[in-house]
Specification:
44% strand, alpha+beta
Length: 107
């Protein structure tokens, strides 16, 4: 599927990984979400990036969010109840919201 116009983008930096949540439109003015994980690897004098992309369509939004919340809650309450997850709260410089004028391209 060809990526269409980008409507909204949120970037979350997490160490050597960056996650992109991009809302895009189709030719028929429908919307879908792409979730991209980009991992940075050193190569020579620079870096190379390994990317994995998921496409999430509107009919699956609620099911996806519910399953993600259930899985995270299970880890927090059943597997790791002793961990204070607030220590991992997002810092302002780790999350960026990018509007339509962004020149970020992650194809």
């Amino acid at each position: 599927m060809e990526d269409r116009e980008q409507i909204y983008s949120k970037r979350v930096r997490a160490g050597k990984r960056t996650y992109f949540f991009d809302v895009r439109s189709t030719r028929s003015n429908d919307y879908y979400l792409t979730i991209t994980e980009s991992r940075r690897h050193p190569q020579g004098d620079g870096f190379t990036y390994e990317k994995h992309k998921m496409f999430l369509y509107k009919e699956d939004f609620d099911k996806f969010v519910d399953a993600l919340k259930d899985a995270v809650d299970h880890v927090k309450t059943e597997l790791m109840p002793e961990v204070d997850f607030s220590q991992f709260e997002t810092k302002a410089d780790e999350v960026d919201v990018v509007g339509e004028s962004s020149d970020l391209k992650w194809d």
